[in-house]
Design goal:
The chain is an alpha+beta fold and 168 residues long. The chain is built from four helices and four strands.
């Protein structure tokens, strides 16, 4: 009985010691094996975005061996392509290969360069907010004033790394 209690006590002390000494991170890097490709082409309709941007990007990257699934959407002036990679792939290597392929795509001259981002907890990019407006309801200056007001309200939050207001 004494021996079994001693073994239990040693195991308990070892468990507590390991719990204290194991390094812990408050926000460890977690890869989701996903890469986001976003492109803006202001004033383009969803059909134009799909034909001139989204489908061209999809066709160029579809044969990359690291990719397991491609999901795309086109909206007014915005294209989003989400690339799901096979698990345990080197994300940096896959991102570079995707980037190289996307660089060869012939996009309209006034379209912005595609933004390629690997999705992980390390890069802090979790969402983008895109605001569209009806010209009959607000003037562009009013919309810009509202966007700048929203930016000033959110800028001081420590969990927001950057806020950009883009327009053409």
């Amino acid at each position: 009985y004494k021996m079994s209690m001693l073994v239990v006590l040693v195991i308990l002390i070892a468990w507590i010691a390991s719990l204290i000494t194991i390094p812990k991170e408050s926000s460890p890097k977690i890869d989701f094996w996903m890469i986001s490709i976003t492109t803006t082409y202001l004033w383009a309709s969803p059909e134009d975005m799909d034909n001139l941007v989204t489908s061209k990007i999809e066709k160029e990257i579809k044969d990359i061996k690291w990719i397991s699934k491609i999901t795309s959407n086109s909206w007014n002036g915005f294209s989003s392509t989400l690339v799901e990679l096979k698990n345990w792939v080197d994300v940096a290597k896959a991102k570079q290969e995707i980037s190289d392929k996307v660089d060869t795509v012939s996009l309209p001259a006034s379209a912005d360069d595609p933004r390629i981002t690997d999705i992980s907890t390390d890069n802090k990019l979790m969402f983008q907010l895109i605001i569209y407006w009806n010209e009959n309801e607000y003037s562009f200056d009013t919309l810009l004033t509202k966007a700048q007001s929203l930016k000033s309200k959110l800028e001081w939050k420590n969990w927001i790394t950057s806020i950009d207001i883009l327009w053409s």
